Task: inverse folding
């Protein structure tokens, strides 16, 4: 419900995520990372400390229990430099995060202008949904857990499509030695027979052990065509090949 998101467990998620980001996901006292971190009251609640963000930090379980209800001045009596650093850090704001958030909202408005349905949410809200619906931590599954949702079903049956940049090849026309003198020259034609490296093609091999129809990413070496398939690299000819999708600088594959 809306109340649960605004005032319930999610409020604690938002606060802790903010503190983790502010203190670089490390214990403020010992600097440990990769361990369980708790919200720490600098001025203990037993001594009148508040729940304001300016009084909160992040500490590991060991330091949290060791400090207990001690004033921070007594706990760090032998570490004045660390005490001064913590006090300074408590007053700082997340300026970098604010700049990134401004960029995100600009991107959000641009996506909305396309007319598509766009759902957004904070990282803490996504984490809350992920735990609530027992979804493992993966970037592509985070997209399913973003925003106000009622549940996540059949995510095990989904296969994410991975797209990563591979570039469009080199514009060099020569290769040089360590003194800068040319060693060899490359062909000026990057797409012989209108085929290029990175194209998604379908080829027909008529003879040999790889006889059959193959589909995959094309690779051109010395003007010769070969196709990357699940069974390995298959050599082909331009005569029995068809370009299905010309390279746009990215490689696509299902995980």
Result:
């Amino acid at each position: 419900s809306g109340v649960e998101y605004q005032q319930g467990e999610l409020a604690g998620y938002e606060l802790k995520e903010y503190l983790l980001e502010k203190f670089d996901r490390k214990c403020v006292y010992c600097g440990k990372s990769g361990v369980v971190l708790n919200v720490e009251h600098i001025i203990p609640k037993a001594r009148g400390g508040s729940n304001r963000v300016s009084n909160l930090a992040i500490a590991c379980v060991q330091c949290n229990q060791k400090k207990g209800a001690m004033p921070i001045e007594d706990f760090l009596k032998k570490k004045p430099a660390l005490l001064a650093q913590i006090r300074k850090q408590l007053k700082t704001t997340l300026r970098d995060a604010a700049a990134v958030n401004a960029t995100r909202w600009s991107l959000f408005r641009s996506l909305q202008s396309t007319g598509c349905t766009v759902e957004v949410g904070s990282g803490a809200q996504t984490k809350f949904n992920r735990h609530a619906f027992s979804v493992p931590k993966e970037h592509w599954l985070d997209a399913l857990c973003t925003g106000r949702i009622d549940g996540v079903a059949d995510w095990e049956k989904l296969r994410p499509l991975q797209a990563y940049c591979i570039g469009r090849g080199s514009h060099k026309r020569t290769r040089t030695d360590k003194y800068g003198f040319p060693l060899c020259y490359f062909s000026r034609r990057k797409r012989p027979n209108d085929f290029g490296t990175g194209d998604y093609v379908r080829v027909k091999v008529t003879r040999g052990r790889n006889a059959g129809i193959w589909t995959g990413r094309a690779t051109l070496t010395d003007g010769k065509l070969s196709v990357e398939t699940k069974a390995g690299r298959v050599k082909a000819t331009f005569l029995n090949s068809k370009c299905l999708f010309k390279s746009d600088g990215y490689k696509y594959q299902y995980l």
Summary: Helices lie at 2-7, 9-22, 61-67, 72-75, 80-91, 95-112, 123-132, 139-142. The radius of gyration is 28 Å. The CA atoms of residues 165 and 239 lie 29 Å apart.
